[in-house]
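Why do we care about 3D structure at all? Because function follows from shape, and shape follows, mostly, from sequence. That is the central idea of this module. The next example makes it concrete: a single protein chain, its amino acid sequence, and then its structure expressed as tokens.
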Amino acid sequence: MKRTATMERKTTETAITVSLGLDGTGTYDVSTGVPFLDHMLELFAKHGLFDLAIRASGDTHVDDHHTVEDVGLCLGDALARALGDKKGIARYGFFLLPMDEALAEVALDLSGRPFLVFDAAFEQEKIKEFDVTLIEEFWRAFCTRAQATLHIRARHGKDAHHVSEAIFKGVARALCAAVQRDPRRPDVPSTKGSLTA
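And the structure:
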């Protein structure tokens, strides 16, 4: 069976629907109202081989923060639901992703414990109108709902677009590895017997 989930989130600030397929081919249909976030999520789907559809509207007339954070929450929810009890998955993933002068190091654990370590310096504050501090906010929200431990470190990078792209592609590749099924592992990959919160 393919592992899929659709999640909806509606508040006074945003309205979001996320559909995620973990055993996909990297197809995407993303529209968040934040063009740079759309670009990053398309990269995430393509390089993680996830089928991803996102529709979001939010109070971007105020700023992009609520939309970016809430999309991260909803994507994390979709991942947690699609994974179910996590039986048979690899659990861990890591990747070192170069993007021109930028290099991102990513390691993650689908542990049931939300935690983010984010070590990335951006030489520019904005990419067009997009505030680069929202990259960290997105991944923090994602980890909270995905119940994942995620370490992101930008080892090198001068161009904020390249650093951001390396991060999203790196997380995609690490997550692709972590959600893979291992036929030798029919149970939950933990001596506790559970990877849920």
